[in-house]
Design a protein that fits this description.
By secondary structure, the protein is an all-alpha fold. The protein has one domain (about 20-25, about 30-105). It contains five helices and no strands.
Length: about 110
């Protein structure tokens, strides 16, 4: 039996919110609501990763000197891509690179 607990609106001062969680929430259609949902659900995980990648690209030139234009598109990374990248156990993360290359239409690592 499957039971949907509807915990998306759970909120506690004990939940550690990152700057990415806070920004995503502030820019959402329902700021201050569904915080737990925004932290853990498949709908938002790709967007959180995209925001982290943007910062990495800015601070560490992850994609070279310029930010890939597609990386500026909110919600471009979806649950299927997140799941596939999570399951990449290769030592060089080739699958992660291939997925980023396909989604962002760039060579993700210029080195």
């Amino acid at each position: 039996m499957v039971i949907n607990m509807e915990w998306g609106n759970f909120r506690s001062s004990h939940l550690p919110l990152t700057e990415y969680d806070n920004t995503l929430d502030a820019e959402s259609l329902n700021p201050g609501e569904q915080i737990f949902e925004k932290m853990i659900s498949g709908m938002y995980l790709g967007e959180l990763v995209r925001r982290v990648l943007c910062r990495m690209a800015d601070e560490a030139a992850l994609f070279g000197d310029t930010l890939p234009p597609k990386l500026k598109t909110q919600f471009i990374l979806r649950t299927p891509e997140m799941s596939a990248m999570h399951h990449d156990t290769s030592s060089d993360l080739k699958l992660v690179g291939n997925i980023l290359q396909d989604v962002l239409e760039v060579n993700p690592f210029y080195n």
